[in-house]
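Now for a chain:

_____
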Amino acid sequence: MQRTLITIPPLQTLGFCLAITLFELLTYMASDVIMPAMLTVTAEFAADPAHIPNAFNLYLIGGVCLQWLIGPLSDHFGRRPLLLIGCALFAVSCAAAIAAPGIAVFNTLRLVQGMGIGFVVAVSYPALQEVFSEADAVRLMALLGNVTLLSPLLGPLLGTLLLQWLSWRGLFLGLGLAAATVWLCLYACMPETIGVMRRDGGQQAPMRFSGQALRRRYLALLRNRQFLGACLALGLMSLPLIAWIGLAPLLLVQLLGLSTLEYGLWQIPIFSAVICGNLILDRLLASRELAHLIRLALWPFCLGLLLLLGSALFGTSLGLLISGLAVYAVGLGMSNAALYRLALFSSDDSKGLVSAAVGMISIAVMGLGGSLIAVIGGATGLESFALYAAFSGLSSLPLLYRFLQKTSPPIASTE
């Protein structure tokens, strides 16, 4: 790797990278590792199984609800204290779940736990950009993307295996203890990047926090149709996958009567396909513009959704449903990071604020869309799920078409 832009010892640099990676993995793993136990959770609380997708979507919404504030606060007070607060909040809310007396408190804690994602997106990502040179920051962001993809792939299987020895409360206690360990690592290794002179002679000065200025900047982003279209498309493209994560326990375990181990194994083709698409993107990045890569990705993306639509209209089996989702997932893996990059640079505002806005809008679309699919009957059968998932994914195409038509070649070829 090239030298970091802020003078910190190599061992501290390694510890910082590992802590950021583990914190991101934990925040995403916490949404997936508990899914095999959700039927047990609702049964213990004598709650309707409809709370299963609700708890997952509340976790996503938690990742959105504070991003708008976290980013600007870290610009003013510094990245280090804000990320330490976020990690501590995540650790305490996970550990507190062991004492949850009912489904209402459990769902509230899921909302608070999801806020950890907001700290990852709005604080740790800008910190990496400020600590490392551009090339190294890009490599690290790619590594974090791959780590994130491991969560939905390994989370259900890991949760299934751990449930052989632990209760669901034990799972949450383990997440809390792991997050506490990460907090100690962040405390020991994370440098402050705001107001610190860099090796290149530059300095990231603290920004005065102003509610009025913040409102103007966010309103300007919302009036930017190019930016807004890309954010909405990001959410809609991921919605079939998000809906599957939330509804799979109901569809596979409750509806089809599969074991939790079988439920975990059926996740492998889908999330392996996402990782495959991400690796294809990495191979093609050097030779193609980002807009062109997205157009290529739309072939498997649309083919998989059309398979889902056909299976919904003419009858489906679990194997056909998983096949359609896997083909779609290849296209999603190929396009997601590229579209995120283009969305980030479709505005000239500071990338911390723009990154928070991208996360808020796209995750809100996923959370609210997943809740809507659950409410209108996405868990009542494989055909209904396939129909709603296909429709939600295909609805991103008009937004993508307009965005790509207006994307200029210089932006499309950004590193």
Notes: DSSP finds 18 helices and no strands in the chain. The chain has two domains: 1-194, 222-415.
